[in-house]
Design a protein that fits this description.
Layout (H helix, E strand, L loop, with lengths): L3 E9 L2 E8 L7 E11 L1 H5 L13 E2 L3 E9 L11 E5 L14 E5 L3 E3 L6 H5 L2 H12 L22 E5 L5 E5 L8 E5 L3 H11 L4 E6 L4 H7 L3 E4 L8 H9 L5 E4 L4 H10 L5 E4 L12 E4 L7 H20 L6 E4 L4
Parallel strand pairs: 3-11, 9-12, 9-14, 10-17, 12-13, 15-16
Antiparallel strand pairs: 1-2, 1-4, 3-5, 3-7, 5-6, 6-8, 10-11
Helix pairs in contact: 3-4, 6-7
Length: 337
Amino acid sequence: MVQTQKALFLTSTYKYEISSRAIPKPSQGQILVKVKSVSLNPADWKVRDPKRDFIKHFPVVLGHDAAGDVVDIGEGVTTFSTNDRVFFQCAGYIDDDYGAFQEYALVPAEIASRIPSKFSYNQAASIPLVLTTATVGLLTPIPFGAGLSPTFDLDVKYTGQSAFVVGGGTSIGQFGKLSPIPICNIIVVRELTVILAIQLLKILDFRHIITNSAEEHFDYLRSLGATDLIDRNKIPDEDLAKVVEGLAEGKVDAVIDTAGTAATQAASLACLKNGKHLPTVNPLQTEVPENKSAVFIFGSTWVDYNREFGRAQWAKLEGLFKTGDLKPCRLIELSGD
């Protein structure tokens, strides 16, 4: 096996450069993956913001999502074999070895999953960050999430209850040669946390699963489990709370805000029942009432406070996607020419 690889380095806040670095060796509990496909998320530009204090040094290898083949296994790993196809969330902001934007990446085996045979690398690479944002936001214990199922037990049911997923929007991943990274396939992911959040709420048996979206996506969102659709082009964010309460016949039991603007955060809090906790994808930009609480979702299972939850999640994902209980995003494959 060769000893060096190509990687895309962030060399300053807004500048990238392709260079070489050593291929890492897996330590105990880790697997080394030959990266076949990665996705681009809003988080990939957010982490570069100096105000967020993610980047501790330059250059750095980033990228949050990857799928590929296991090529080496660290001591103690019994759940994977070489040549297994896997998908996983990356964390280059912790160490370059864990970034997605390179030919080979390391990941702890306990927070990776096999790719079901019916899925391509591209489909699998669209999943990790948006899924984990939804699961952490909805399921993990308060204050990190809404606390719906802190052990990732999807047999827990909320029959008869109502939920609002803010930001139905577009639901398309685009695949093609959309980047100068000559090492793998690239997927652009937009607003897909919504897609996984709706499916999770359906599994948990919520009666009303309300979301706002462009009308052209209504049929698709209904197919995933949404029960009530609001046309985002007709109802402004400032009026969302009133409309949601009308559909749910009162305030809702759970909300996840995947837009994260001041207006959507305010609407989410307004339609949420007292004593409930709002997860949102951006830092808080609105006042939180005393009888409610809110948190900026840190959608990662790398961090210590989400790791136990993450182990339970990643152990079940292959089965959930294999049975169709969870579905990846739709992809438009582009030629890249």
